Structure prediction request, 160 residues.
Amino acid sequence: MQPLSEFWSRSLPVRKSQDCNNIFHNPPERIYFYASFEKKHEDPPMGLLLGWEFGRQWLEERQHFLREKRIMAKENYIEPDFNWWLNKRKRIKQRKNFQKKPQPPGKTCNITAFTKAKEARRIREEERQKRLAGWSAASGEVDNKVECKCKTYRDRSTKK
Prediction:
């Protein structure tokens, strides 16, 4: 055991070493509230202490500090999304099934530009095949008329 020193020296806090690797990060430093008059290094006048002037000022500054702290905390708040949470708990097959769009009650007989172009390509291909076979399509064997082949169109054409 070491003999005690007779000289006074300032005590130093024992701090943890900086080179150790922690699993968890250190918690963020807490922001403490100090009133403006506590930061001053001069003695307060006795009249203000007895009249509760410092108490009133401390309450006002603390209320302002807490209001700012709440505003900062609200910025980090994320609104919960329960639909996402429920969707994650569905079976995979249920999630992959897409909802079918409701079909209109009766199909209309509209011919789109896509179907017209498809018919024109088919006719051109037939003409090309006939030309390659040695006889021309100019004699009128190919009908360039585009008709709708849906059921409602056939019903209309037979009623005439």
Notes: The radius of gyration is 44 Å. The first helix runs from residue 36 to 39. The chain has a mean pLDDT of 75.
